[in-house]
Amino acid sequence: MRAKLLILLLFLQACQGVPGPGTHTVYAVLDYGKPPTRSADPPGEMISDVNLLLFSEDGLLETRLYMSGPEVAGGTFPLTLPLTLRCNILAAVNFGYALEGIDSWDDALNYRFRLAYPDEYSRGIPACGMLEDFVPGRNPEIVIPVRRLMSRVDVNIDRRALDDGVSIKVRSIGIGNCPRSASLDGPSFISSKEDTFGQGFIKAYGAADALNRDASPGVSGTVSLYLLENRQPEPDPTVCSYVEIKAEYLSATRVTRPDEYLVYRFYLGTGDNPLGVERNRLYTITVRPEGDGLSGEGWRVDKSGVTSFGPGRITLHPSDIISCRVGDSVHIWADLEPTDAPFDIGLEELEEDRERGLYDYTIDPDGHGVTLSLKAPGTGIVYFQAGWPVTDSAGALIVIDP
Questions:
Q1: 224: closest CA among 248, 198, 243?
Q2: Cα–Cα distance for residue pair 188/205, rounded to 1 Å
Q3: Which H/E stretch holds residue 215?
Q4: How far apart are alpha carbons 233 and 236 in whole angstroms?
C-alpha cells in the first residue's frame, strides 16, 4: 500500500512555493510495497515524521526538509523539481529528528540511524528510501521505494510433542545482540559488541503471555519482536542477533528454581546466511519442544535454572556432635537431595571460630564440606544451609579437648 506524502521543497529556482522556470510540481509517493513487517504493533503504515533531502547531479545537497505532525500522516504536499536535471532523493521516515551531518550523497550512503533504546518505535517503524540518478520530467508523481530498517520476528510455541505433565510457561522473550544502529543503504551489520544494547528488545509477562495461551489446540498465539538489520558477513556468535525465551518449567521430576528459568536461544536468518537478519523482512519461528522439553545442551538450551523436584533433604556427616582433641584433623560435610540445590557453607561461623584460635579450615572443592585443623581447646560450630527445594539447615557442635 502506498502512503502518499505531499512534501514542499523550495528548489533553486522556486520562490515561496511557486515553481520557477524549468520546474515541475509533482506528487511524491512513498511506496512501501507489500512489506512483510506490517503489523499493528506498532501500526505498519504509521508515519510521524519525514526527512526529504534532494541532491544535485554531482551529489551535493541542494535542499533539506523535515516535517512532522498530523499533516505528515494524512496530507498531500507538492514537490517542486527541475524538469531535466538529474538528481538523487533521500526519504527518511520516523527517525524522530531532522537529519544533520549529511551534505552529500556519499554522506547519505554512509549515514547510520541510531536508536536511543531497543523498542523506540512508538512513532512508527523507521524506514528509508533512495532514488538515484532520477530525471523528473513531466511525470505527475515520483515513486520512492521505501523499506523499513527493522525486521519483524513472529514466534509461537507448539507444545503438542511434550510429555504429559510437562509445563513450560514463558515469562519473557527478547532479542540478544540487539543492534543499536543501521546504515540507510544496506546491507547493514554491527561490527562490535559495543553497537548492541545491553538488554535488547524484550516482551515480558503480560506482553509475552500470548505464548502461554492456545490459539489452536496445543499451539500458542504469536508474539512479535523487532530489531534493526544485522546481516553479518561471517558467523560470529558475539555479534549475531538471536531470540531468547525464558520460561518457568515443571514436570514430575524437575522444576525451575525461584527467579530462575529454563532458557531457549536460537539464531535468526535463513538459507545462505543462517546468522544474518535482513531489513524489512518477516521471520516466522515455531518453537517445538519435545519429550521433557529439556533436550539440547549448553547455550542453546540452558537448564542451569532447573533442579530436581520433590522433597529436599540435607544430611550432615559424620554427626552433629563431634568430640576431638587439639592437633586432630576433622572432615565435616553435607549431602543434598537434590544435589544441585543452592548451598551455603557458613563462612561467617567458620571465620569467627578461626579468629578465636580454635582451628584453621579448608573448604572442599565442591563447596559442600570443610576440613578443620584443630589448634586450641574449646567449642565451636559448623553451620550449613541449603536453599530451595531443600530449604533447611544443619549444624555440628565441635568440642575440642586439650
A1: 243
A2: 32
A3: strand 214-216
A4: 9
Phi, psi of 178 (to 5 degrees): -80, 120
- Is residue 92's pLDDT more than 50? yes
Predicted confidence band at 288 (pLDDT cuts at 50, 70, 90)? very high
Residue 302 vs residue 8, higher pLDDT: 302
Beta bridge partners of 214: 220
What pLDDT, in 10s, does the model give residues 369-399?
A: 999 999 999 999 999 999 877 889 999 999 9
Task: With CA atoms as reference, report the closest residue to 263 among 248, 251, 285, 245.
Answer: 245
Given a contact cutoff of 8 angstroms between Cβ atoms, the answer to whether 249 and 171 are in contact is: no
What value, to the nearest 5°, has the Cα angle with vertex 34 and ends 31 and 37?
105
DSSP characters over 342-394: -EE--HHHHHHHHHTTSEEEEE-TTSSEEEEEE-SSEEEEEEEEE-TTT-EEE
- The span from the CA of 163 to the CA of 293, in Å, is 8
Read off the DSSP letter of residue 279: T
Cell 554531482 identifies what position?
58
- pTM surpassing 0.85? no
Separation CA 147–CA 222 (nearest Å): 24
User: Do residues 86 and 135 lie in contact, with contact meaning Cβ atoms separated by under 8 Å?
Assistant: yes
Q: Which residue has the cell 514542499?
A: 8
Overall residue count recorded for the chain in this entry? 402
DSSP result, 71-127: HHHH---EEEEESS--EEEEEEES-SS---S--BHHHHHH-EEE-SSTT--TT---E
Q: What percent of the chain has pLDDT over 70?
A: 84
Question: What are the backbone angles phi and psi of residue 357, rounded to the nearest 5°?
Answer: 85, 10
Specify the pLDDT at position 142.
79
- pLDDT: which is higher, 363 or 236: 363
> Do 333 and 370 contact (CB within 8 A), yes or no?
yes
243: enclosing H helix or E strand: strand 242-250
* pLDDT > 70? residue 35: no
Give the separation between CA 311 and CA 172, rounded to whole angstroms: 29
